[in-house]
Amino acid sequence: MIKDFRIHPVAVADPPLRSSYGRHAPYALRTVIRLDTTDGISGAAEAHGGEGSLAAFHALREHVLGMDPFALHRLWMRWGAGESAGDRSQTWLVPGENPNDARRRAFAAVEAACLDIIGKAVGRPVCDLLGGRARDAAPFSAYLFYKHGGGGGEGADAREDEYGECLTPEAIVRQCRQMIARYGFREIKLKGGVLEPELEIETIRLLRAEFGPGFPLRIDPNCAWSVETSVRVGLALREELSGGGYLEDPTAGLDGMAEVRRRLLAAGAGIPLASNVAVTGFEDVVPAWRDSAVQIVLSDPHYWGGIRAVQRLGDLCQALGLGLSMHSNNHLGLSLLIMAHSCCATPAMEFACDTHYPWQHEEDEILVGGRLRFENGAVRIPDRPGLGAEVDWDQVARLEEKYWKLPYRRRDDAEEMRKHVDPAWKRILPRW
Amino acid sequence: MIKDFRIHPVAVADPPLRSSYGRHAPYALRTVIRLDTTDGISGAAEAHGGEGSLAAFHALREHVLGMDPFALHRLWMRWGAGESAGDRSQTWLVPGENPNDARRRAFAAVEAACLDIIGKAVGRPVCDLLGGRARDAAPFSAYLFYKHGGGGGEGADAREDEYGECLTPEAIVRQCRQMIARYGFREIKLKGGVLEPELEIETIRLLRAEFGPGFPLRIDPNCAWSVETSVRVGLALREELSGGGYLEDPTAGLDGMAEVRRRLLAAGAGIPLASNVAVTGFEDVVPAWRDSAVQIVLSDPHYWGGIRAVQRLGDLCQALGLGLSMHSNNHLGLSLLIMAHSCCATPAMEFACDTHYPWQHEEDEILVGGRLRFENGAVRIPDRPGLGAEVDWDQVARLEEKYWKLPYRRRDDAEEMRKHVDPAWKRILPRW
Predict the structure, then answer these.
(1) What's the distance, CA B370 to chain centroid?
(2) Which range of residues forms the domain containing residue A345?
(3) Relative to the CA of A134, which of A312, B128, B293, B399 has its CA 20 to 30 Å away?
(4) Which residue among B122, B131, B319 sits closest to A72, beta carbon to beta carbon?
């Protein structure tokens, strides 16, 4: 029985990465939760941060105290049933900031912490509790960002800038070289929607020239493009985005995506479209499939509602003939483990998962033993029960202290653009 | 690690029940399997019987010996990948006799036995390992059959005939009264396709008159009717099959079902169509949904590939807006537990499940303590780890001895019709 539920908002240094939403603030916000059972077992999980998430966790708390950690369906039926039916798309709000999926996000973290507890009680890794491993290690992709100079954090708390400023195609190739040398990734994702489309096309071409077709490429402009521009970029990159790559959320809305797909197919370009913006919940999958708007769905064990939700999404995608990949937000090692278990317990996960992990720093890791290691771009399931790591709760306390001292309470990339780049900046869709 | 895999074909006395497939033989065939681990834990499961199932289990054996009981995804990937892609429909072959689903049926039993082992190792009921209970007890329906006199078994091994001959509408009402008095069922299913459609319509009407609208009604003629007849019966019973009831497999094939649905809707009759004949695997669900051929899918933890497969099917049905119910074959208490855990672990299971359990006898039960009890038509998840019952292996040995002495090696209801009812009997579709 769960007797204690602790909720720790934390702030984590984050470099000034760019996307169509704007620019990352010097700190990314996360929430670390801890459940303790009457048997003396504790489980932990990491989730989106800021005051929206915090409020959801505090509302969920009374349902979790006293519960049996195995009784997850019941918790969902009691708690998730109240989920708002409003727009959960990530067209305007970044993942983790939409109140319409706040309940399933909070549930997801509790599920992960309960599975951590169950795994420790049983002496088995979490993915083994969920049907066992389809694979022993979760492959991730090199997640490249156009960025300003700076490694994240502020003042005395500023971090080293490992990758420097990267605002040109050549700088991105350098960034990718560094990242692959360090982590061994075998697939590459470029966050687009930042520079003129011609420059992003050039970036992808330079990456292909540098790394060759053995490294599948994906680009994700987060809806920055019109249908016309999406088709133009797609046709320009028809070779580069084939063979295991994809074009992710080029334009806003399922209708726009479907139109892009129709026009690309009419021009003989079969590159698949992926989405985590227009498709964020189970309700969206069938319409997206029916309209051929999306061929690859990006799962996420955080905002889809948990590790089992990723498995369920995999089954649904398999039944519909859709591909499955995984989305990422800025995160620490605990989320990386949740993502790795989700991937390994989901046979349908055929694409390398996204991860922001290279953008965070050793100084901010909350796991005992420091940052997790990648082998050939993959995270191996630890040979330990539960999620497979011990949380350094003193470190969590330090990061929470920082959270309460800092002014950041929600992710607002547009505000950062106005502060640092252009006082008049607004998110305009389509921008090109 | 699994060190032993025992496979026991058994024969179980079965009354001469009728369906459009013909007449049940005096014995139903089942297989009971037992897995033993190096830790000294044993798990058991019950599956379809006869030589086809037996061959599949013997072929699977080498993959199971030495495996970790948690490693179920891997076993499926290794073993299920070789599944034949041929027709798995149950239009001509009864469930359990189609070689095209033999692999997933064998896998299902191994999964159930592994979950039984894991549950015992962890000290928790199986459904708790699968996300926890959506409900504490699995509701079942009163499964009524037109039948000849006789309780099943042969010669000195003949069983008492609790329900007597039931070949008229009135006799079925009496059968239902007896069954509900004994088990407390709250939903009613009539196996049709046996008498003239007018008599089956009359049977349903008499049942409604006797039990009222508080007892939803379903009728399942197993494809015995033409599209015309299906529509005629559907319109005649539009009231009786509404409000939680359904019309199950009135006619053969998805095209026929879709046509029945179209015509019923055109006549303003929205009674849902259910299927376990045309829809037997995940590959069938999306086409059935797309053509509006089926509104309710009948799961089965045996031939759909396990308890997790029922959960996955529930998720798929939920995503598509389809209803979920559960199919049954003749079975003993161990299968009843597998079905109850499947139901309780699947939030989407909104209809009472089918069960043949009332047709079997105390003398044939293989559980220590005898037959399982129903409360208000439902089977409560036992407060014991694993599937929740101990198998009486001496009794299994006795039933296996009987299997080897008897001539029955596969279910052949048509042959029984020729033996006992009409030497020229053949399965004709549509019959009416």
Answers:
(1) 21
(2) 132-387
(3) B128
(4) B131
